Amino acid sequence: MADRSAPSCHLRLEWVYGYRGHQCRNNLYYTAAKEIVYFVAGVGVVYSPREHRQKFYLGHQDDIISLALHPERVLVATGQVGKEPYICVWDSYTVQTVSVLKDVHTHGIACLAFDLDGQRLVSVGLDSKNTVCVWDWRKGKLLSMAPGHTDRIFDISWDLYQPNKLVSCGVKHIKFWSLCGNSLTPKRGVFGKTGDLQTILCLACARDEVTYSGALNGDIYVWKGINLVRTVQGAHAAGIFSMNACEEGFATGGRDGCVRLWDLNFKPITVIDLRETDQGYKGLSVRSVCWRGDHILVGTQDSEIFEIVVHERNKPFLIMQGHCEGELWALAVHPTKPLAMTGSDDRSVRIWSLIDHALIARCNMEEPIRCAAVSTDGIHLALGMKDGSFTVLRVRDMTEVVHIKDRKEAIHELKYSPDGNFLAVGSNDSSVDIYGVVQRYKKVGECIGSLSFITHMDWSSDSKYLQTNDGNGKRLFYRMPGGKEVTNKEELKGIQWASWTCVSGLEVNGIWPKYSDINDINSVDANFIGQVMVTADDYGIVKLFRYPCLRKGAKFKKYLGHSAHVTNVRWSHDHQWVVSIGGADHSVFQWKFVPDRKLKDVLHIAPQETLVDSNSDESDSDQSDVPELDSEIEQETQITYRRQVYKEDLPQLKEQCKEKRKSAASKRRERAPGNSIRLHFVHGYRGYDCRSNLFYTQTGEIVYHVAAVGVVYNRQQNTQRFYLGHDDDILCLAIHPLKDYVATGQVGRDSSIHIWDTETIKPLSVLKGYHQYGVCAVDFSADGKRLASVGIDDNHTIVLWDWKKGEKLSAVRGSKDKIFVVKINPYMPDKLITVGIKHMKFWRRAGGGLIGRKGCIGALGRTDTMMCAVYGWTEEMAFSGTSTGDVCIWRDVFLIKTVKAHDGPVFSMHALEKGFVTGGKDGVVALWDDTFERCLKTYAIKRAALAPGSKGLLLEDNPSIRAISLGHGHILVGTKNGEILEVDKSGPITLLVQGHMEGEVWGLATHPHLPICATVSDDKTLRIWDLSPSHCMLAVRKLKKGGRCCCFSPDGKALAVGLNDGSFLIVNADTLEDLVSFQHRKDVISEIRFSPGAGKYLAVASCDNFVDIYNVMSSKRVGICKGASSYITHMDWDIRGKLLQVNTGAKEQLFFEAPRGKKQTIPSLEVEKIGWASWTSVLGSCCEGIWPIIGEVTDVTASCLTSDSKVLATGDDFGFVKLFRYPAKGKFGKFKRYVAHSTHVTNVRWTYDDSLLVTVGGADTSLMLWTYEVEGHRDSRQCDSEESDLDSEEDGGYDSDVTRENEINYTIKALSTNIRPMFGIKPHLQQKEPTLDERQGVVRGSRPPVSRALPQPEKLQTNNVGKKKRPIEDLILELVFGYRGKDCRNNVHYLNDGADVIYHTASIGILYNVATGSQSFYQEHNDDILCLTVNQHPKFTNIVATGQETQQICQLQLLLFMCGMQ
After folding, report:
1. What is the pLDDT of residues 968-1000, one digit of tens each?
2. Which of 998, 1042, 1001 is CA-nearest to residue 1258?
3. Do 261 and 270 meet the contact criterion of CB atoms below 8 Å apart?
4. Which among 50, 431, 1279, 1375 is placed 20 to 30 Å from 1013, CA to CA?
5. How far is it, in rounded angstroms, from Cα 420 to Cα 374?
6. CA–CA separation, 1340 vs 773, rounded Å?
7. Residue 488 has pLDDT above 60, yes or no
8. Prior bond to 1188 cis, omega within 30?
9. Is residue 276 within 8 Å of residue 236, measured between CB atoms?
10. Is 1364 helix (H, G, I), strand (E, B) or coil?
11. Where are the extended beta strands (E) located within 1270-1306?
């Protein structure tokens, strides 16, 4: 059975033994339903003591280390560790995620706390700055963040009696925070003389600004404001780890094992010493306390949870136990009873009842335990120790039978033989010892074939053979009991194994992922009856495979919960359960085995909802029964949108060319041309790799995209308007429900989504910062307020936006494979679906995250590749189109049926009010009723059905359909071939727009005296286009090969076409029928040119470095131009038809005499004098200026000169079309620049009368027409005409002051001499002890104040050791001379109707009173202020904002301050 599919049975987590007490505190609470919530490993547990039942929250993928309970006591927040840790807020009733908070913390989340009304959550990170963050957790939005402290923070709490105040404490500090606007400001607690400065471990806030905190020495410190006012000495004998406030008062728990209760004024009520109770023991340490009514919950360092009823306080009830700190490796199951035995580095061995979910026996050993085994009769339990010894105990009463030490290194594996006579003991010194059980464990044999430590062993059923695995991954066999190695393959053939726990061997080949380390999988156990096996690995994952599992990369089901490595896993004796144990999390998980279930049950068991997939996504290779991918989809998934250089990189690249810029700036450069061009019409539509990107607007126009242009096409007038805000390929387009706005997403390093108005063509919002490389799908919500987008990064990130605010609401990693479509649920904007390669996922928003559930297929088949999806008539109905032509109908997450809709993939689907319309690769548009029961009508896209008004020709019948939209009585269809068609409901089809298909377009020629042009492309077509206002394709011909160049003869009757196989054709320009064809070359024909005048000669250039010259009349080759060292790129004739100018890929400019092809050397001055019939060259002194500063990165691919020889148009690899004055002498000429093509512009040509410029884009397949506007005719239409790459002094330049200011660098000074610390609290902000005046009873304000500004800071007094000295007074700023004018502007203002003047100098804001001449100061900044403004609104009088420079470049700290108001 070489089935590589995942097993159909599954595991369900039933019980977790343990509680995370070590390194955590305050993580145990009663919920509103009187259940107990806590965590262990990566699982949040809700335990009901009444029903003795556990529920699990499985939204984390690593150790949980912090927990907070919402004030209403239903919701729980948990924080985890990890590289990108996140916080989950979840419901303790349903154990479903409510919100995910992510993307801010690193390393881990150390503490969490909700505020009084539960709206905000504060979190503290484990990063080096211990960052404190405040969240609006429902929205998943960060409200504020600030560095917490340089050392660890142990606890944080909101002041429940003062809004916007928080307190945090930790290593040798306590801080009092206030939240104002979005800034968190701390003040350090002043310990003074009242208590020693020491580490504070926990805290609780009370009324009247009082805070109680527990210190490391066992004292309670009481704070008023920020000052320590008293201490409660000796509250505990050692550190106080936990403090819990409730209505009755406070409970504290400490390292001394005591729990103390205090009243609301912190007077002691009672003390409970857990060490003295009957369940207590020496060394018991309390980590968490929760007091509710007459019940107290206590969590201990050693993973126990006690419940104490106050009036029976000496009889605590033990409700949960687990192993203590230390790795847990040993696991064995009883052969006949539902018992599991575990042993750990905490030196204890424990026996657990799998039915009662309880610990039934415990015994402490001398040494850490590394493995365990139970004898076949269930009487003896053998334990292997870390020191190389092993001990055998009686299971009944845990008394010792024997203790033997024959080895020095740890015993890692031991197993009893099936007949019960022998015990095999494998140690880390590479040997296995065999002991006779009956002979009181006398050693009877030894196996010494391994060269590495022994990891796994199995006995054969007849107890005659033993197989072992070692650390090198070797599998060896021994004859028992002597231990002789067996190498004869024949002898091994028939062996039946009693158990299978080995990780190497043919039967378990498939459990190994590709490229994994041999020690990744720690444990395996096979269930022979159920034909499944379970594995445990280093990544915290328990997996279920079929058994045997022969082929590498088999599919599996995976289960998360353990946080770090899972060290061991075993089936229970009756295969009802699987028990797994975690190494570092030292927890024991019990999983219920659910055998192959029938389909009817499947609808009751919703798939586990987790942030991480709980299924076999990760399996490396695909299921054997998955059909081949459709060729078209395969092609599409292989397209990469990565660029070596993005347009965003331009400023940086220019910066690197500074030296060149400087030298260029000193030379006089030609001005940019006065004339300009404007985009007029685009032939093309992006259909080959996009879908559903074509819509009717409100006014009946059609909106779609091609290259970097959003196009709004008016079909009545045959005109187009363009959105030119993008600068690279647009990959997706979605229309707002009101059909007036459109969202488009593009390729880019930090790719952007633009939302723009189809009427005004103005952008409304641009969304950036979250998608790398590009955006491949977008969708609006039904209310139009939200937008979902999918990126083409490796994780296909999904982001949900509030697009008007430009705010990211939620984000999640979508899938490793490509996602094609995202759709927001029209009834519930918090839900969405994505479809893609073997991917159908239902998402719901949870705060800043999205929670996904895979589509549940049940017995209806397998996950297919989905190409499109829509929602149906109710919120839970969804429909998706597959790559095999089916439509899948979903209710909630369950597949309820499939309908065959098309032959080949269903690429597009559109929901109507009463029904659906679908389009597929088969070129058929189908209309369906609202249940997909009946197909009402089909339209085949055929040439015969084309209506007379069509703007072109259909290339083939039944083109693949990529987009469908309905409106205005028509069906709008977009095809893979780049055509847009309008299908009338009665049948006729009108072709509206078309362009080339997939493949690069290079060949372009304009007719010598008519407004038409020809193009030829890698899509193997030659096309003739009408450039007059009718804008249509006049003729098309399919070629046997793609082509790269074409040229009309001077009389316009013939058209020469160069093909990619080295041949070329001359065809009739009207009918496109062959006149003649040749093939002398093997490589691509790169350029082809008729000589001027009568067109006697034809020059044909190829990529194998030659130009052949043919006599057109005699059809013979008459000359060969040799001497080029690289492929030929451009070619021009002189007016007489006697000389050829040639450019090559090695940037050579060569000249050949025609017709023989003799090479000539012509000095550059002479070249300028020659009259050229055309100029398309990019080299030579006349066009030196067209090469950009960053010429190494980008090539100028094409150029063309107007017939009056004044303006040279160029196209380059960046997709820019530029206009230069001709001749463009001198480096880096000035230009006008236009963006519309996305990547390289491959060719540019002026029409015969220079009225239009025609350009073609390589990969974007588009043909663009630009109208040429002569100077003086200035239209205000968009023209991205940056005049040049660099603005030099001569452009009216800078005056010397401006130049100097422009060159000031504010960063160096701040970095080198930042004397003042950038954090901490300045002395005048710290509240101190009363000043001398106050102590002497002088009332503040009885002296004349220095100013009318904010009250002056109180004077600082230090605690001097010599008590007799007079305390040092603080300095008070009295007067500042100076004003910052040298590099600032608009920074002096009147306030208070001219009574005061506000300005700044250094880091001080100054308010100057005109009448008295006195100054008052704002001193909150800690570096130079660079700007100042006054709020002009009457509501906000006297509010000023100032911005400073600081260490982080460009980070302005804006501080608002009030002036002239006490």
Report:
1. 788 899 998 888 888 888 878 888 888 888 888
2. 1001
3. yes
4. 1279
5. 10
6. 63
7. yes
8. no
9. no
10. coil
11. none
Residue type for 1386, please? N
CB 301 within 8 A of CB 586: no
**Amino acid code (one letter) for 631:** S
1164 three-class SS:
helix
List, in sequence order, every residue forming a beta bridge with 426; answer none if it has no partner.
413, 432
φ/ψ of residue 574, rounded to 5: -105, 15
In contact, 1224 and 1267? CB cutoff 8 Å: no
pLDDT in tens, 492-546: 888 899 999 998 888 888 888 766 666 688 899 998 888 899 999 888 889 999 8
Q: How far apart are CA 384 and CA 373, in angstroms?
A: 9
Helix (H) or strand (E) holding 1257: strand 1252-1257
Number of H helices, E strands in the chain: 9, 109
Tokens of 901: 């809709």
Helix (H) or strand (E) holding 632: helix 631-638
Q: Which of 116, 200, 207, 131 is nearest to 164 (CA)?
A: 116
Strands 532-537 and 839-846: unpaired
First to last CA, the chain: 85
Burial of 985-999, coded b for 16+ CB within 10 Å and e otherwise, reads eeeebbbbbbbbbbb
Task: Report in angstroms the alpha-carbon separations of 1354 from 228, 379, 1329, 1350.
Answer: 18, 78, 9, 12
Task: Beginning with the edge strand found earlier in the chain, give each strand of the sheet holding 741-757 in spatial order.
Answer: 730-735, 741-757, 763-780, 786-791, 798-802, 807-812
Residue 1192 token pair:
């190494």
Question: 176 Cβ partners below 8 Å, 6+ apart?
Answer: 165, 166, 167, 186, 187, 188, 189, 211, 223, 225, 226
Longest alpha-carbon distance in the chain: 119
Phi, psi (deg, nearest 5) at residue 663: -65, -35
Q: Give whole-number Cα distances, 645 to 642, 709, 1192, 1194, 1239, in Å.
A: 9, 20, 12, 9, 10
| Cα–Cα dist 571/579, whole Å | 6
Q: Which residues contact 1092 (CB under 8 A, 6 or more apart)?
A: 1050, 1133, 1135, 1136, 1137, 1173
Return d(Cα 826, Cα 832) in angstroms, integer.
9
Buried b (16+ CB within 10 A) or exposed e, 1135-1171: eebebbbbbbeeeebbbbebbebeeeeeeeeebeeee
pLDDT in tens, 609-652: 444 433 444 443 333 344 456 677 777 777 777 777 776 777 77
Per the omega criterion (within 30 degrees of 0), is the bond before 1155 cis?
yes
Where would I find the beta strands (DSSP E) of 225-354? 227-232, 240-246, 249-254, 258-262, 268-273, 286-292, 295-300, 305-309, 317-320, 328-333, 339-344, 348-353
The answer to whether 243 touches 251, Cβ cutoff 8 Å, is yes
* Amino acid residing at 688: Y
The answer to whether 167 touches 203, Cβ cutoff 8 Å, is yes
Where do we find the tokens 């001749």? 1223
- Cross-strand pairs, 1131: 1142
Q: Indicate the pairing of strand 484-485 with strand 475-479.
A: antiparallel
pLDDT tens-place string over residues 691-740: 889 999 989 899 999 988 999 999 888 899 999 888 888 999 999 999 89
Q: Can you tell me which residue has the tokens 């809700």? A: 46
Q: How far apart are CA 21 and CA 1150, in angstroms?
A: 81
